């Protein structure tokens, strides 16, 4: 597996496995075990997904030593106040059944991010977390956090897929030595992404699938990708992306698909923020 060195020196696999919306714990554990068998070692969960325990259980029962894995979890916004972040970190460790978490992210730039960040810095010093980062943070929010704290985010996990490529944010992360990690690399299938003509043409050129082309496009741009699937064949398919190369022309064809618009939510939209804080999923009913 190709790895990327984060700004604190630790190595992160460039391809991983996400478990958002895999709410049933048995299904989640089975999917993670299948992914481990397929070769994945990076797993992306979150307190908000309520499946940290299933990820931890699959890793524990794999028979593979803990240090071969890279576990990511995320602090939810309602756990950012007072002493809640410390408690939330300890809760994640308990649920994941591990002594340390490789990467811990502030899930969204809402609530008391500064308080959460300082608790996460303390947890790094205590050996509970190896790297800390943010998710869905814009350049101004990352800059503000960096200027007033000791540790810089190692990762900014953001939406990146052919429909919403976020070039300015990816470029900002790159220039600040913050690793971009792409959530929803397939835009969860929205706008018929898997049958898009341009992507299908490129896939046919390489006898690969559209999903593999999208992941390859991200990998060639130096981005970490964490596709989700609960199907054995797709889990294996999404991992088989290191035996082909997209040409510059193909990379440009994909770049031209950018619509500069999220199919999910805009973290700057006050209505979306209210929906998220009240426990809803903005854009959840869009196809
Ligand atoms: N930080 C954040 O705010 C945030 C937000 C969203 C997601 N995430 C993270 O990013 C991960 C990935 O994003 P996501 O789960 O939202 O969406 P995604 O990975 O873009 O898409 C997942 C969807 O694509 C389908 N799929 C997967 N592989 C396929 C293939 N090869 N061919 C056809 N269909 C395929 C899956 O169906 P099946 O499962 O039925 O195969 C599922 O419906 C999440 O699991 C989570 O870890 C983070």
Automatic annotation (TrEMBL):
CDD domains: AKR_AKR5F1. The keyword Transferase does not apply. Keywords: NADP, Oxidoreductase. Pfam families: Aldo_ket_red (PF00248). Residues 28-258 form the NADP-dependent oxidoreductase domain. Transmembrane segments: none annotated. It comes from the Bacteria. InterPro entries: AKR, Aldo/ket_reductase_CS, NAD(P)_OxRdtase_dom_sf, NADP_OxRdtase_dom. Belongs to the aldo/keto reductase family. PANTHER family: 2,5-DIKETO-D-GLUCONIC ACID REDUCTASE, NADP-DEPENDENT OXIDOREDUCTASE DOMAIN-CONTAINING PROTEIN. This is Aldo/keto reductase.
């Amino acid at each position: 597996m190709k790895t990327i060195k984060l700004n604190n020196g630790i190595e992160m696999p460039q391809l991983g496995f996400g478990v958002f919306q895999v709410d049933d714990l048995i299904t989640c554990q089975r999917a993670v075990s299948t992914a481990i068998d397929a070769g994945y070692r990076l797993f992306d969960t979150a307190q908000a997904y309520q499946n940290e325990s299933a990820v931890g259980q699959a890793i524990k029962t794999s028979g593979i030593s803990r240090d071969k894995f890279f576990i990511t979890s995320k602090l939810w916004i309602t756990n950012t106040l007072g002493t809640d972040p410390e408690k939330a970190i300890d809760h994640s460790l308990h649920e994941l059944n591990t002594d340390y978490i490789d990467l811990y992210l502030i899930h969204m730039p809402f609530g008391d991010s500064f308080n959460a960040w300082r608790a996460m810095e303390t947890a790094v010093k205590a050996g509970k977390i190896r790297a800390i980062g943010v998710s869905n943070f814009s350049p101004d929010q990352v800059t503000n956090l960096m200027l007033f704290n000791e540790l810089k985010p190692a990762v900014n996990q953001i939406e990146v897929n052919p429909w919403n490529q976020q070039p300015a944010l990816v470029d900002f992360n790159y220039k600040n030595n913050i690793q971009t990690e792409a959530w929803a690399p397939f835009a969860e299938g929205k706008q018929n992404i898997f049958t898009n003509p341009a992507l299908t043409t490129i896939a046919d050129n390489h006898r690969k699938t559209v999903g593999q082309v999208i992941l390859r496009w991200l990998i060639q741009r130096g981005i970490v990708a964490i596709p989700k699937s609960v199907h054995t064949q797709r889990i294996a398919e999404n991992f088989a992306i290191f035996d082909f190369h997209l040409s510059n022309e193909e990379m440009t064809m994909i770049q031209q698909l950018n619509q500069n618009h999220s199919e999910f939510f805009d973290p700057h939209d006050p209505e979306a923020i209210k929906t998220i804080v009240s426990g809803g999923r903005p854009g959840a009913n869009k196809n």
